[in-house]
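[Meeting: bench + compute handoff]

Bench side (C.D.) handed over the final construct sequence. Compute side (W.E.) agreed to return the predicted structure before the next meeting so the bench team could plan truncations. Sequence as handed over:
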Amino acid sequence: AEGASTHAMILAGWQGGVLASVLGSFSGTLGGQLRICSLAHTEPKRARNLQLVGWAFWLFGQALGQVAILLAPATVAACVTFSASLLSNALLAPLVLNERLTRLHGLGIMLLAVGGAVVTLASCHGNQEYSWHQLKSFISRSEFLSVAACLFGCALVLSAHAIRRNCLDLYSFACLFALCGSCDLLVTKFALQSLRLMVLGRDGQPLHPSWAVPASVALMLLLHLATFCCQVVAAHYRKALQSLPIFLGSGAMMQVLLCGIFFDEFGEFTHLQTLVFLSGLGLILAGLVATSMAPHVEAEKSALPQFPQHTGRQESLDTPADELLPGDLPVG
């Protein structure tokens, strides 16, 4: 009976995390689209108000995301956030940004959402209460160190390529954004677990070294700031129905990979669970390909003013048309 009660508490805990993740995803997506909308307004006051409201919704979504990270397994939190954000983006983009869904957009979003749901169902749903000994052992696992080294090596190559070209294309930025977001998720869960151990200290003594909480919280705040900066840049890619699914899909895959390996959430997989999990990742990849190929189509009567091709400081940043693609951002 006690075991059944514990299992029910664990299940209720991560289900609460899923609910927080869904609500946070909707709020964050709405905030992001309002910020994109503000970039198209020439009236400074209206643009500023949209920016403020957009950031308020985004920050509220991030707060709910912290609750989800604490309660649910990292892979579940990542995949639910991904699927809920995709659905919210598809529903809100025609209303907020007046973008039109095409059949290829619909196919891509369907594949991404189904893939995210499959990965979520196949993910680890175990107890999320780690001891300090477990957390410390996760850091030195050879599997995690190898994957982390490969990911950071790819990030350095992409950064060097962007500096050499003097622009950052959509897909390179998506990879860098995904790496930043996955590190943020990992460190946030680690920091929240350290805080939990501090609160649960026995006889007034914490269950971890005194430096663990300050160090992990400081790194978490630093990565939150980096993610915030990526969010600012992401809005300038504009095309929500194309760019956001690519950001979300690459981010979800990297979060699942990095966090799943770090917290050893793949260690309990059965052969069938592994097969289902990999098929879900395959659907996500197919959805990313379909979304990246979908054309950007605006409604016949746009509710937003057209963004000028060259205004003010933008002229000094533009590179020749044969060097800078439509989805690229100038660097430096």
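W.E. noted at the follow-up: Residues 48 and 184 are 28 Å apart (CA to CA). C.D. will use this when planning the next construct.
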